[in-house]
């Protein structure tokens, strides 16, 4: 009995309302006087509670005199409560102010990051864009497979030493993939083109990520992902020709956009493919 009363209170009914509903379900239709007598409660409180329950659709008033109420069947009651709660939740979701802008949440710790990522993958309805290294892909294979089984479109880009993207996208500032991964392995997810996570895992740093639903971040990550796919397919079809024209990893193009200080440190002339020439001393 106490457990039933506890759950009714959790559903928003007061103590006296919960007791009235259980009493009528147990003893059948009755008036306020009978119920108050059985419960040892004030008649005025019982009458007021019965009227509230009738307005909420949780009790039904019977025809005739004297005034009597009956309890709904359990399935009728739960259906009534469910409809009321769903309507309230929908209204709150639609009407609650969302604030001036989408926040950026910073999160650290391997378990915390992977837990929230698995949760959002489980909530996905239409699409998940995945840009990860093979180590992280293996950890998340199960929740992503479950999402696909629900009909969610999952689009992958896996990075790693045996994957073409590693060469295409490893800009010339990296000496090799080992140097690239010492600071951690980058990963990003975009769920339903709104929820985003961008972070690093492994290497010399603790796992960390930034989480947001800001539309600008979603747009940037989706554009980045699309560019990766375009570059990958270009490299697969025209790899030798592209390397001959633009250098390894499109180095000749990227040189134009690397900071001058960094270029000078590496001894590269920004105007050509040749090492920078030092002026001879007179």
TrEMBL record:
Domain of life, per lineage: Bacteria
Cited InterPro entries: TrmB-like, Tscrpt_reg_TrmB_C, Tscrpt_reg_TrmB_N, WH-like_DNA-bd_sf, WH_DNA-bd_sf
Annotated spans, Disordered: 263-282
Every Transcription regulator TrmB N-terminal domain range: 8-75
A Pfam family that the UniProt record links to this protein: Regulator_TrmB
Ranges where the Transcription regulator TrmB C-terminal domain occurs: 108-227
Full protein name: TrmB family transcriptional regulator
């Amino acid at each position: 009995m106490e457990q039933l009363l506890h759950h009714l209170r959790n559903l928003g009914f007061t103590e006296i309302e919960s007791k009235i509903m259980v009493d009528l379900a147990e003893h059948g239709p009755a008036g306020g006087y009978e119920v108050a007598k059985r419960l040892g409660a004030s008649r005025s409180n019982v009458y007021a509670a019965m009227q509230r329950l009738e307005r909420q659709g949780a009790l039904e008033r019977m025809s005739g005199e004297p005034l009597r109420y009956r309890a709904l069947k359990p399935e009728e009651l739960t259906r009534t409560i469910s409809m009321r709660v769903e309507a309230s939740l929908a209204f709150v979701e639609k009407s609650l102010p969302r604030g001036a802008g989408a926040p950026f949440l910073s999160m650290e710790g391997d378990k915390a990051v992977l837990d929230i990522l698995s949760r959002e993958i489980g909530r996905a309805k239409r699409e998940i864009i995945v840009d990860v290294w093979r180590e992280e892909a293996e950890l998340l294979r199960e929740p992503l497979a479950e999402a696909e089984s629900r009909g969610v479109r999952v689009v992958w880009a896996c990075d790693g030493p045996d994957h073409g993207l590693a060469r295409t996208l490893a800009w010339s500032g990296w000496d090799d993939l080992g140097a690239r991964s010492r600071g951690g392995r980058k990963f990003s997810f975009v769920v339903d083109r709104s929820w985003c996570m961008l972070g690093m895992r492994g290497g010399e740093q603790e796992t960390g990520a930034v989480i947001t639903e800001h539309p600008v971040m979603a747009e940037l990550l989706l554009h980045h992902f699309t560019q990766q796919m375009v570059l990958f397919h270009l490299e697969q079809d025209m790899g030798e020709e592209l390397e001959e024209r633009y250098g390894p990893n499109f180095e000749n193009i990227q040189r134009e956009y690397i900071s001058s200080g960094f270029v000078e440190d590496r001894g590269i002339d920004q105007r050509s493919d040749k090492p920078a020439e030092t002026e001879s001393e007179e």
